[in-house]
Amino acid sequence: MAGGKGTRLWPVSRAGKPKQFQCLTSDKTMLQETYLRLRQIAKPADIFVATNKEYVSEVEKEIPGLEKEGIVSVKVFMAYPNLRLSDGEIFRVMRIAREHGLLTMLHAEGGEVINLLVPEALAAGHTTPLWHALTRPTWGAVEATLRGALLAAQADTSLYIVHMNAGGEVDQLEYARQHGVKVMGETCPQYLLFTQDNLQQPDGAKWVCSPPVREAADNARLWQGLSRGILQTVATDHCPFFYDGTKPIIFDGKPVAIPGKELGRDDFTRIPNGLPGVGDRLPVLWTTGVQSGKITPNQFVALTSTNPAIIHGLYPRKGTLAPGADADIAIWDADRSLTYGLAHARHRTDYNLYEGMQLKGYPEKVFLRGHLIVDNEHWLGHPGMGQYLHRKSGNPVL
Predict the structure, then answer these.
(1) Rounded Cα–Cα distance for residues 26 and 35 (Å)
(2) CA 309 to chain centre
(3) Using one digit for the tens of pLDDT, what is the confidence trace for 308-327?
(4) What per-residue confidence (pLDDT) applies to 242?
(5) Less Cβ crowding at N or C end of the chain, within 10 Å?
(6) Among the listed residues 81, 76, 150, the one whose alpha carbon sits nearest the alpha carbon of residue 107
(7) Residue ranges of E strands in 272-370
């Protein structure tokens, strides 16, 4: 699942592409070599391969071979100049995915409009973090969500729309599902809890992500989408950067400093897009969702565990407590109260979006395949404990 759950990503491209990417030089196909290289450097929980737009035809030929490797989803983008596909290209990918029982995942934004608005904003002298959101309009996300659903309907395939952030997207998702379109939706805590007001704070760069956070009315409609079963999952889109990468922090006993959001101090387009969140999701959602009465404990489990496992081909190995399933278990203390923040989150970054939040409910112990890896807040795991998960295709639409 792109962007979260501790996945390690290894950007790749063909020879002659930007220097920050590793070049593929063997006679293997692009996806084959990417897959092999990832298996050599880590045991990731999942693999996400992003390809430059110019390789669409090449990747299309390789999609049918993904299923035998246990990779049963592909992700397409309507935004970002080097990733954005045309409607026709997305439609082609969807049909190929349908033929092989794969799930198409969609980043839904109005890419062409964004590409016009960004240079206009800069030319007018608008450089603050708020303009990251204003140049990625809410209506663009709403339109893109409906357009994606309509493409899925015409391709007669299933669609999973990632990190939904606008109330209008929930409206379009509900409409499409009511009319028989096989489409599902995901949101993230940042879209439930933060707004463009945060972008206007002195440290507003901390909240720069794509798609951007919206308004309070969008928060409310997304919560409604979760409580009413219109949305199927809550993920994170975990993609942390330092707020000030010039100052090292101590992580795993070593000093770490990585260039981060200070790069866009004078230009919002240079702020790295992404937020930390994978360690925050469960305790923050429990407090703001379950403790507030917006969702039930059973919905909490479904949205964060059971539904993702079913949708992405891991059920019943994951997402349930049953004989034969992996014993991945969180022992939850529903009454524990604590002041949350950087000291608890343990992300490799220098800030936490929920600093100072009062939480009620927190994990006490965590087991991975029956092995205790967290005892209170003591980490007992080690690198390499993860396993590649071979997923099954043809999964149900929830």
Answers:
(1) 13
(2) 15
(3) 999 999 999 999 999 999 99
(4) 98
(5) C
(6) 76
(7) 329-339, 358-368
DSSP structural state of residue 128: S
* Residue whose token pair is 């590649």: 388
E-only strand ranges, 78-206: 103-107, 159-161, 183-187
- Which tokens sit at 12? 């790749």
pLDDT of residue 15: 30
Residues 65 and 96 sit within 8 Å (Cβ to Cβ): no
Q: What Å distances lie between residue 23 and 10, 14, 20, 56, CA to CA?
A: 11, 5, 9, 18
Nearest to 153 by CA among 184, 110, 183, 185: 183
3-class state of residue 333 by DSSP: strand
Average pLDDT over residues 368-377: 96
Identify the pLDDT of residue 35: 66
Residue labelled with tokens 């002195």:
202
Of 221 and 19, more confident: 221
Kindly list the structural domains of the chain, giving each domain's residue range(s) and its CATH number in brackets, ordered by start. 12-321 (3.20.20.140)
Tell me which amino acid residue 185 is: G
In this prediction, residues 37-56 reach a mean pLDDT of: 53
Look at residue 34 in the predicted model and tell me its pLDDT. Answer: 67
Give the CA distances from residue 325 to residues 17, 321, 328, in Å, rounded to whole numbers and listed in that order: 43, 7, 8
- With H, G, I as helix, E, B as strand and everything else as coil, classify residue 70: coil
DSSP 209-265: -SSPPB-HHHHHHHHHHHHTTSS-EE---B----SSTTS-EEETTEEE----GGGGT
User: Which pLDDT score is estimated for 53?
Assistant: 60
Per residue in 129-140, is it b (16+ CB within 10 Å) or e — as a string?
A: bbbbbbbbbbeb
pLDDT score recorded for residue 7 = 37
